[in-house]
Design goal:
This protein is an alpha/beta fold. It folds into two domains: 5-73, Beta Barrel (Ribosomal Protein L25, Chain P); 80-237, Alpha/beta knot. It contains six helices and twelve strands. It has helices spanning 24-33, 92-103, 122-142, 157-166, 204-208, 225-237, and strands spanning 5-7, 19-22, 41-45, 50-59, 64-73, 80-86, 107-111, 150-151, 169-173, 179-180, 191-196, 214-217. The model has no long low-confidence stretch (mean pLDDT 94).
Length: 243
């Protein structure tokens, strides 16, 4: 059985024999929800490549103290993958974030596309972004990732165009494209950016604003915006050393 994983900045720079304390929400979750006890082993990660197998020495009401038994530092995998996700309605945004995190995406960018039904403004935007980030964090722990993906603030269409220009491979998914995703030459390193449009599709102006990208279709089926990104990333990663 895999060891339970918790997020802790204290493992950065730690070594075998070091004592670390897990506090805050993670400590409370470990002791109260997961009922971690003295003598059990857990994994602590900083989400930035460092992971430590630890033995729990003591627990308190909402925290625990553990000793590092073994520590490992993983390099970032190549190529890095960014998914620009048009904001879906309801909880489909969190579903997309969860699956994208599990499949290995390095950065998730919420995009306010023209035909998005959901609109993030003010407090609503802050709460929605916080949910996406929390979903990504929990999915990364569940997937045993050493590097957690970042979830940025909401991007404009101009921001998305800039991301595509700077990518080694920029991909825009579009159901009416004549080119198949399978026809792309995926780089073994560098950066890949995948743009997923809203349920209502991309506008002509949006497509025209992404001249540096390859506009492709996934297949004969039309996927929901919440699942198209993970399908595209899985197909692309299968042609890289990561998979």
């Amino acid at each position: 059985m895999s060891l339970p994983v918790f997020l802790s900045s204290e493992v950065a720079g730690a070594s075998a024999g070091s004592e670390v304390e897990l506090t805050g929400d993670e400590g409370r979750h470990a002791v109260v929800v997961r009922r971690i006890r003295v003598g059990e082993r857990i994994v602590l990660t900083d989400g930035g490549g460092t992971a430590a197998i630890c033995s729990v020495d003591a627990t308190a009401k909402s925290s625990l103290t553990a000793r590092v038994l073994e520590i490992s530092v993983a390099a970032r995998e190549e190529p890095s993958v960014t998914v620009v996700q048009a904001i879906p309605k309801g909880d489909r945004g969190e579903l997309a974030v969860e699956m994208l995190t599990e499949v290995g995406v390095d950065r998730i960018v919420p995009w306010a596309a023209s035909r998005c039904v959901a609109v993030w403004r003010g407090d609503r935007a802050e709460k929605a972004l916080a949910r996406w980030r929390a979903t990504s964090r929990e999915a990364a722990k569940q997937a045993r990732r050493s590097w957690f993906p970042s979830v940025t603030g909401v991007a404009s269409t101009a921001d998305v165009a800039d991301l595509l220009v700077s990518a080694d491979l920029g991909v825009v998914l579009h159901e009416e494209a004549s080119t198949s995703l399978a026809a792309l030459d995926v780089p073994a390193s560098g950066s890949v950016v995948v743009v997923v449009g809203p349920e209502g599709g991309l506008t002509d102006d949006e497509l025209a604003g992404f001249p540096s990208a390859s506009v492709v279709r996934l297949g004969s089926s039309v996927l929901r915006t919440s699942t198209a990104g993970v399908a595209a990333v899985a197909a692309l990663l299968s042609h890289t050393p990561r998979w």
